[in-house]
Design brief:
CATH topology: Rossmann fold
Strand order of the largest sheet: 1-10-9-6-2-3-5
Radius of gyration: 16 Å
Number of domains: 1
CATH class: Alpha Beta
Strand content: 15-25%
């Protein structure tokens, strides 16, 4: 089931999504004694992460991990880990337990076994998963036509190596690690966060796409038991 939440501006979207994320984290913290948050990179969720970092929670009981990562050093400008450390893992949330996706292996293919071991420490199903979407209908690092995409779709493990086709969307960093659809689809609160009229049109087209290998976000739109879509212009 897809629930669409449309807002007149991004500030209203961010506030509403913040309330939903915090409420869901608190439920798992109270009921299970812990919670897990799967975060996407990119500029769109940045304002949410900054607000979330100020929320009073027992952050030492919250695990934070990335849904995908470019295979670059954690301090690289293109690193999603760097983005999280500058936005979410600050203030009150600085005590959260971050599980890194990037490891010391030379390539994602070399590092996938270690990534799977690290991610099996996550509380699963995840409490909250925040996904984004690109203009090519990719989500996480599940890119159309990527090497490893079909394997990621079929995998029962949490992580998969991806070598994307270079494009304006991927930029030069085509070697990626991603969480698999099977792992992401289990999340208690699964959110697709998109902004702009162009992304809304991509989303509407993806609802009807016949082949998820060509439109990876379609797999989530068509298979998720529950998906919350948040959009603002």
């Amino acid at each position: 089931m897809i629930r669409e939440h449309r807002f007149s501006d991004r500030e209203a979207l961010t506030q509403a999504l913040l309330e939903s994320v915090v409420a869901t984290l608190r439920e798992d913290l109270q009921q299970q004694g812990g919670a897990s948050l799967l975060a996407s990179g990119g500029s769109t969720p940045g304002p949410l992460y900054r607000l979330l970092s100020e929320v009073e929670l027992p952050w030492e009981q919250v695990q934070v991990a990335l849904v995908d990562e470019r295979w670059v050093a954690p301090d690289h400008d293109a690193s999603n880990e760097r983005l999280l450390r500058q936005t979410l893992l600050q203030n009150r949330a600085a005590t959260a337990n971050f599980i890194a996706m990037k490891n010391g292996s030379a390539t994602p293919a070399d590092g996938v076994a270690a990534c799977n071991r690290a991610y099996r420490a996550l509380q699963m199903p995840a409490t909250v998963c925040l996904l984004g979407m690109g203009p090519d209908a990719h989500t996480a690092s599940l890119f159309p036509g990527a090497e490893g995409l079909a394997e990621a779709f079929a995998s029962a493990g949490p992580c998969a190596a991806i070598e994307a086709q270079r494009s304006a969307v991927t930029g030069e960093y085509t070697s990626r690690m991603t969480m698999t659809p099977q792992a992401l689809l289990q999340s208690r609160l699964l959110v697709l966060l998109i902004t702009g009229e162009d992304k809304w049109q991509v989303y509407r087209q993806a609802l009807e796409a016949a082949d998820p290998l060509l439109s990876p976000v379609s797999l989530f739109l068509q298979q998720a038991a529950s998906l919350e879509v948040y959009w603002a212009p």
